[in-house]
């Protein structure tokens, strides 16, 4: 008897384009949401976009509340839940980079409230995913949550953000190559469930982004358009999979370790990009595809080595050799990479040993 079932949660409305920040309230109306919104944001995004979103509701006679989160943590999720309770909020709007959107997503899920995602940076593929990524002690949780009901991505706002945020989003997408390889490996060796559709979508998203690298340039609003579409597509792959597997493998574990070893030094997307050069080498060896991964990062203006991340060689190696411990997710790191092997991989690929 065939008893398999799945439940794929996807956003209903994806609104992308020039000036769409001014249409957040319209997007909310289109979802038949009413009542008081709680805006969940971080300091810079609040100034850049939060106030403008609040004004749209005020003009319609609704007084939105705002809570500002400083970090991605379970404490911040609780802060948002408490703020939603105090404000008697009817739905949440996450405004900012990956951290406030993740926190808003998880709080909305806990409270059974709808969420609208308003990214202010094209820096990560969590803008529509049904996941929240949060560190806790020695581990890093990838928490299931309802995806946003709508995402409103204003290309004018995103292209005015510091360019490094956009190159971080590109690198988060490039890392899909190795994430999919890790997922396939875990499927072969550990019988982890694999979705051909999610794997193919994730990989194709990376390929299409790299093919369009020539159109992704600082100051070009079309760049934000191309990158956002890739971020949405990658987030949908995660929703289809019901896991972050299509977009998060060993390179993400290494990046999560870097967040602990060298907090606040480099952007998530940049870290996963550099780490994927090394994990691609571990997958396919000296003559393998690590050069293509590095070239793709370079063509999109993302860092390709530890020095560009601002991370010391020793710290990078520590992250590689300890990354397997932080999550029960089988990857090319297996049960751990020996220090000499890590050094060899990072040196051959030019990730460490630079100036
Ligand atoms: N849930 C998921 O599926 C995913 C979650 N993530 C998570 O997202 C986080 C990384 O996202 P980031 O955006 O890099 O972090 P972030 O939210 O800390 O933003 C990075 C910086 O950019 C600033 N910023 C945002 N918009 C700006 C603008 N328009 N102009 C100037 N500055 C602006 C922020 O204030 C912050 O200082 C990590 O915690 C990562 O684990 C990443 C990918 C997928
Ligand atoms: O960053 C991610 C995908 O780009 C997801 O990260 P997690 O695996 O920690 O949820
Ligand atoms: Zn990521």
From TrEMBL:
Names of the cofactor(s): Zn(2+)
Query: Which EC class is the enzyme in?
Result: oxidoreductase
EC number(s) on record?
Answer: 1.1.1.261
**What is a biological process (GO) this protein takes part in?**
glycerophospholipid metabolic process
**Organism this protein belongs to:** Haloglomus irregulare
Q: Which SUPFAM superfamilies match?
A: Dehydroquinate synthase-like (SSF56796)
Its subcellular locations are:
Cytoplasm
Chain's role: Catalyzes the NAD(P)H-dependent reduction of dihydroxyacetonephosphate (DHAP or glycerone phosphate) to glycerol 1-phosphate (G1P). The G1P thus generated is used as the glycerophosphate backbone of phospholipids in the cellular membranes of Archaea.
GO terms assigned for molecular function: glycerol-1-phosphate dehydrogenase (NAD+) activity; glycerol-1-phosphate dehydrogenase (NADP+) activity; metal ion binding
The identity of this protein, by name, is Glycerol-1-phosphate dehydrogenase [NAD(P)+]
Q: Which family does it belong to?
A: Belongs to the glycerol-1-phosphate dehydrogenase family.
Q: Which residues does glycerol bind?
A: 125, 172, 252, 268
